[in-house]
Design goal:
Shape: flat
Distance between the termini: 17 Å
Number of helices: 2
Strand order of the largest sheet: 1-9-8-7-6-5-4-3-2
Helix content: 10-25%
Order of helices and strands: HEEEEEEEEEH
Number of domains: 2
Largest sheet: 9 strands, antiparallel
Structural class: alpha+beta
Length: 182
């Protein structure tokens, strides 16, 4: 009885690993502070965005020059049970282009995504993770200060496909074995 359970677990692990093709790394939706410096003749854009609600805040800084640049963003969310989540994103911007009619800046982001949780009552950190984010989509509306970095992956990673295929093979073998025994 342990073998079917193990194969089902491997199959589910493969499904979970291949899920989540699009995930938002960081975003600001309604900032209270949005300051933009634009120097079109130099190809230079700088922006600082800050937004907060009763239990969360986001602060970001972006700098681009002729299609290349840097982005720093951090956010924190506090919960009533004394825990809070903190996230930091920092990395390079490239292939940046500005739509001058809509003032929307789009391009690609590659950098580091750091996330951890902290419980102020117990003093324990949990869920600490560093993730390298390659080639994510960066979209920034300079007029409103809304931005997002979204990791997109149309193709599941090879490890997920291997787990999924192994699980399917195991299930097919179990069904075949039961069918032959009857």
């Amino acid at each position: 009885m342990k073998k079917p359970f193990m194969m089902l677990t491997i199959l589910l692990a493969g499904l979970i690993g291949s899920a989540g093709a699009n995930s938002i790394i960081i975003s600001a939706n309604k900032p209270q502070y949005n300051y933009v410096w634009q120097y079109p003749s130099w190809g230079l854009i700088e922006q600082e965005v800050y937004g907060s609600t009763q239990n969360s805040w986001t602060d970001a800084w972006m700098y681009t020059y002729n299609g290349w640049g840097w982005f720093d963003g951090e956010s924190e969310r506090t919960f009533s049970n004394g825990t809070y989540d903190y996230g930091y994103v920092g990395g390079y911007l490239y292939d940046m282009s500005l739509n001058s009619k809509t003032d929307v800046l789009t391009g690609r982001f590659s950098g580091l995504d750091e996330l951890y949780s902290y419980n102020s009552k117990t003093g324990y950190f949990s869920g600490w993770q560093y993730t390298y984010v390659p080639n994510a989509l960066f979209v920034d509306n300079l007029n409103t200060g809304t931005f997002s970095i979204t990791q997109t992956s149309a193709v599941p990673e090879p490890g997920s496909l291997l787990l999924f295929g192994t699980g399917l093979t195991g299930l097919a073998g179990l069904v075949r074995r039961k069918y032959i025994r009857r």
